[in-house]
UniProtKB/TrEMBL annotation:
<feature type="transmembrane region" description="Helical">
    <location>
        <begin position="101"/>
        <end position="125"/>
    </location>
</feature>
<dbReference type="InterPro" id="IPR006603">
    <property type="entry name" value="PQ-loop_rpt"/>
</dbReference>
<feature type="transmembrane region" description="Helical">
    <location>
        <begin position="207"/>
        <end position="226"/>
    </location>
</feature>
<feature type="transmembrane region" description="Helical">
    <location>
        <begin position="146"/>
        <end position="169"/>
    </location>
</feature>
<keyword id="KW-1133">Transmembrane helix</keyword>
<feature type="transmembrane region" description="Helical">
    <location>
        <begin position="23"/>
        <end position="41"/>
    </location>
</feature>
<keyword id="KW-0812">Transmembrane</keyword>
<feature type="transmembrane region" description="Helical">
    <location>
        <begin position="61"/>
        <end position="81"/>
    </location>
</feature>
<dbReference type="GO" id="GO:0016020">
    <property type="term" value="C:membrane"/>
</dbReference>
<protein>
    <recommendedName>
        <fullName>PQ loop repeat protein-like protein</fullName>
    </recommendedName>
</protein>
<dbReference type="InterPro" id="IPR051415">
    <property type="entry name" value="LAAT-1"/>
</dbReference>
<feature type="transmembrane region" description="Helical">
    <location>
        <begin position="175"/>
        <end position="195"/>
    </location>
</feature>
<dbReference type="Pfam" id="PF04193">
    <property type="entry name" value="PQ-loop"/>
</dbReference>
<feature type="transmembrane region" description="Helical">
    <location>
        <begin position="238"/>
        <end position="261"/>
    </location>
</feature>
<feature type="region of interest" description="Disordered">
    <location>
        <begin position="290"/>
        <end position="327"/>
    </location>
</feature>
<keyword id="KW-0472">Membrane</keyword>
Amino acid sequence: MDFFKGLTNGLASERCEKLQAPSYLNLTLSILILLGILVSYLPQHYRIIARGTSEGISPYFVLLGTTSGTCAFANILVLPASRADVACCKTVSAFECAAGLLGIAQVGVQWFCFSVILILFLVFFPRDSTLILDEAERQQYTWKTAVTVAFVCLLQGLAVIFISAALILSRPYHLGIWANILGITATVLATIQYLPQIWMTWHIGHVGSLSIPMMLIQTPGSFVWSGSLAARLGVEGWSTWGVFLVTGCLQGCLLGMGIYFEVKNKTSLSTGRQSHARCVVGYIQGGNGSAETDDEGGTHVENGWSERSPLLSGSRKSSHTPAPSRR
């Protein structure tokens, strides 16, 4: 019993012939997609580390994304076409073998990068406070929630590995059915993956630690990646490339919402600063003071007045003690 048992000679020879005549256009596109997947996740990793918190990222988004990625990676590994490509590496050149396995590498890199998000989400989860989205509904995300998410992802990964290994050793002819089950599961999880994140972003009114540059790269990239996998695996590989077609649509919705909130918040902040500046100028003119702008954009006012001075001058107590008169 081995990983390649259960493959028909016709499928194996067909895949080998295809690998020996690679499409250089599809090869170039596949390499660009592989690099794009890796680069697209770096802004998200950096944003969480730079902010020092994973606030704004839904635990259920991380849970569904990681489990979906695990199913997608296992799906392409046990797919008959992928196993045939691996088997062909014994007869084709190293270059042709590497070109034929780019599809597997793409899904593997995507799974790895999202798993890094899971680790960063757990490490930088705000332990000193509870993330309250809606006090009326009293829905809270605590450190216990983050640990539970990581534990469930670990259990799911071990279960997929155990079942796949058992089928390879005892029922290799059923690996095609198992691949479709994994693909359908990955598609369902990916379909609902962005729903809790969309809901959370809508309620808090900002993206938090969620990276907009990541989504700007991944949203169009999902459609390109889906098309590349479809060209490589054909219609029978729908359970693999269909996942990324669905995620591209939902991620586009989240991206649009994130951009809307970013523009809205920056506009509100700019308007608030202008209004505050006008008020400060009025206070200065009324108090015969002068003002300067500090390095952080705040206003420093001389003659005892500042932007934090009370509105009613009579209510402000002087912090200076009058010097005793000399006789």
